[in-house]
Every structure is written in structure tokens, then in C-alpha cells.
Design a protein that fits this description.
Order of helices and strands: EEHHHHHHHH
Shape: elongated
Mean pLDDT: 76
Number of strands: 2
Largest sheet: 2 strands, antiparallel
Number of helices: 8
Strand order of the largest sheet: 1-2
Strand content: under 5%
Length: about 230
């Protein structure tokens, strides 16, 4: 084929390479060897050419500032006009997904805050329910009810409500996650089992709160509970 007025020989074909982030699909790319030190190129074309030198330090080298200084010294002896701008491969990869990393940290932080606030509110609701039904629980304990019976009463009322509330939340979350993933050329498919797992985790935390409140309520004297109302 002809490239910039010169005939070029194709020496090989390589597999697809992800040289950009996964937000973008793989596009055609050509790699060629410049053997004439950019001669024959105008200044604009010459400025557009970037040369990469991949250096793999010896294992155990951790002082990259010293390594960078030595690289610049060596390159300046070869050609003083060469600008050395070293970039770590790790930093280069992380820069491609800096936005996603920040978004992930924000989602994790607000999810933790929301979970804590929700559990605090649920604890308050449980305390209110137990306080309002203190006389009922006292009567049940007199006739032989134990912690497990009180747990069943509370769980039977709260778990179905949580299950109903999780349906619209799961639908909105599924739509939002698919909308965010649509910007990636290469993406995973969301498995509904993740929402089931989230419901199981939340239900487990709710049950722990119910067990704790039910256990605390057993320390109240039945006679004292009956006397309060």
C-alpha cells in the first residue's frame, strides 16, 4: 500500500489492541517504523509524531524520581532536543478510568451512609412498635411466649414491607445501572441475582435488629409491662 506518497510493505497483522479505555470500541490502527528520523515530514506532521520508549526497571527499584533523572541525563547526551516525559503504566491506566474510580468511591460512601441511616430509622421504628405493644408482649410472655415468638411477630410484620419496598428500588437501580453501562463499548450484563443478594443482606441486618430488640424486651418484667397501660 501507499502511505504519504511512499510504498509500504505490510510485515504483519496483530490482534486487536485496547489502546484506549473500554468506553470506546477498538478502531483500526497502523504501526510503522520510522527509519529516516522524521525526514520528509513537515513541522506539523513531525509534531504529531510521538515516540514511546518502554522501560522495565529491575525488580525492587522503587525510586522512580532517581530513575527519571537518569533517563533524562542519558537522553540529553543523545539529543538535547528530546523531551523526556516518563509515565508509569499504572498511572496511565488509572487516568483512563479516573472518573469511574471517583464515581465508585462516591457511590460506596453514600451507600454506606444510606445503610446506616436506614438501620437507625428501622431501630427507631422497632423501638416504637415494641413500646406500643409492650402490654401485648407482656401478656404473651405470661402465657409462655419466648424470644422466638416475639421475633416472629416483629419479623412477620416488617419483612414483607421490606420485600415490597425492594421491588421499585430494584427496578430503578436496574435501569440506572444499565443506563450507566451503556456508555461502555464493552460491558457486563447485570444479573438479577445481585438484587436478590442485596435483599438477603438487608433482610439479614433487619433480622439482627429484630432479634436484638426482641431479646431486650424479654428483660422487661411482664407485671411491669401490664402496669404501664
Amino acid at each position: 500500500p501507499v502511505f504519504r506518497g511512499d510504498y509500504r510493505v505490510i510485515t504483519g497483522v496483530v490482534p486487536d489492541i485496547h489502546y484506549r479505555s473500554l468506553n470506546q470500541s477498538i478502531e483500526p490502527m497502523t504501526l510503522w517504523l520510522l527509519t529516516n528520523n522524521l525526514q520528509g515530514l513537515d513541522p506539523i506532521q513531525r509534531a504529531a509524531v510521538t515516540r514511546y520508549l518502554i522501560i522495565s526497571p529491575e525488580q525492587g527499584v522503587s525510586d522512580f524520581s532517581q530513575l527519571t533523572f537518569q533517563m533524562r541525563q542519558v537522553m540529553s547526551r543523545i539529543n538535547e532536543d528530546i523531551v523526556v516525559d516518563p509515565i508509569l503504566l499504572k498511572d496511565s491506566l488509572e487516568s483512563q478510568y479516573s472518573t469511574e474510580s471517583q464515581l465508585s468511591r462516591l457511590i460506596l460512601m453514600f451507600s454506606a451512609i444510606s445503610l446506616v441511616v436506614s438501620l437507625m430509622g428501622l431501630y427507631g421504628v422497632l423501638s416504637y412498635i415494641i413500646d406500643r405493644r409492650r402490654k401485648e408482649f407482656g401478656i404473651r410472655r405470661v402465657v409462655g411466649a419466648n424470644v422466638l415468638d416475639i421475633f416472629r411477630l416483629l419479623a412477620g410484620r416488617l419483612i414483607p414491607i421490606i420485600g415490597l419496598a425492594s421491588i421499585p428500588v430494584s427496578i430503578v437501580s436496574f435501569y440506572a445501572a444499565n443506563k450507566w453501562l451503556s456508555q461502555f463499548a464493552y460491558r457486563i450484563e447485570i444479573n438479577p441475582i445481585h438484587f436478590v443478594n442485596a435483599f438477603i443482606v438487608v433482610s439479614g441486618l433487619v433480622m439482627l435488629l429484630i432479634v436484638a430488640n426482641a431479646f431486650i424486651s424479654t428483660f422487661d418484667s411482664p407485671s411491669q409491662a401490664l402496669r404501664t397501660e
